[in-house]
Amino acid sequence: MFGGGMNPRKMQQMMEQMGIDMTELDAEEVVIRTPDEELVFTDADVTRMDAQGTETYQIAGEPETRGRDDAAGADDADEDTIPDEDVELVVARTGASEEAAHEALAAEDGDLAAAVSRLE
Asked: Does the predicted TM-score (pTM) go above 0.90?
């Protein structure tokens, strides 16, 4: 990043003077999702850099590339991400069954107002 052969202690002092704080994170896995694929880093070095209140993350490692269709549980992902509290709220508002409320939330990508409108 800065001066390739510089003494690490000197580098740390310069970064502190510039208000830059770097922290190594003990990450187990990093997943980057794009519309077409997932990049999964299972053995990556992750560094968080805080420079004047802006956090930046650096990932170093070799990712495994997966197509979005290959992602484990891709078909079930929407249903697993709907909080029970949201289902209960839709049931209370509409009087629908929990199953119907859950289906409406899944169909509306978790949008509470749209799920309620769908069931009213």
From this structure: no
